[in-house]
Amino acid sequence: EIVMTQSPATLSVSPGERATLSCRASQSVSSNLAWYQQKPGQAPRLLIYGASTRATDVPARFSGSGSGTEFTLTISSLQSEDSAVYYCQQYNNWPPYTFGQGTKLEIK
Amino acid sequence: QVQLVESGGDVVQPGRSLRLSCAVSGLTFSSYGFHWVRQGPGKGLEWVTVISNDGSNKYYADSVKGRFTISRDNSKNTLYLQMNSLRAEDTAVYYCARSYCSNGKCIFDYWGQGTLVTVSS
User: Which of A7, A69, B61, B82 could disulfide-pair with B69, CB 3.0 to 4.6 Å?
Assistant: First the structure.
């Protein structure tokens, strides 16, 4: 089973600034890495797949990068509505599909 | 628009059974595989199971193997999760999600709103 590790656990960033979230896989997942956003009381929403491709209707301020075992989600010019928990997930080697434990992004 | 609507969540005693449903609309149901993903209270996301578009292939997380069964009825555009021998650690919100695949690599692009299962005596 591939273990996904996210850092930091919590991130506090001011509006308009940049947020950088990290995700590490215990073995290579190539570019088969997705990012999801989950707001309180809501279902997860697909943001990024293929490590760097934005899903439909995802604002351009969200970008993903990386391959192999190291990945980054960058949110440029943070807005208040970006406050959420962000999960990475690998879909290269399955079953099982595995998620990271999440990064909680707080807007100062 | 695409909609996935889960139902069937309830409070059940340990050892009992429960069946969840996920009604899907706005897409060609029989063309896609579907997943169940769960989230314990205050916890992260855990993949539970997946079924192929025709129901011929099913995979399970070790934590539910032998106790949970995924199925589908393509005539009713509905996905199911039969949960037997429930345990306290199965307490979670259960989401269904569409599996969108390319060359065997599948993303979860549409999700339902979830249904809460509480296992407690």
Answer: B82
| Kind and range of the H or E run holding B98 | strand B92-102
How far does the CA of residue A74 sit from the closest CA of chain B (Å)? 20
How far is A24 from A31, CA to CA, in rounded Å?
12
List, for residues A8-45, the tens digit of each pLDDT value: 999 999 999 999 999 999 999 999 999 999 999 999 99
* Digit-coded pLDDT (tens) for B46-61: 999 999 999 999 999 9
Task: Tell me which residue in B95, B105, B112 faces A92 most closely, judged by beta carbons.
Answer: B105
| Whole-number Å distance between alpha carbons of A103 and A98 | 15
Q: Does B44 touch chain A (CB under 8 A)?
A: yes
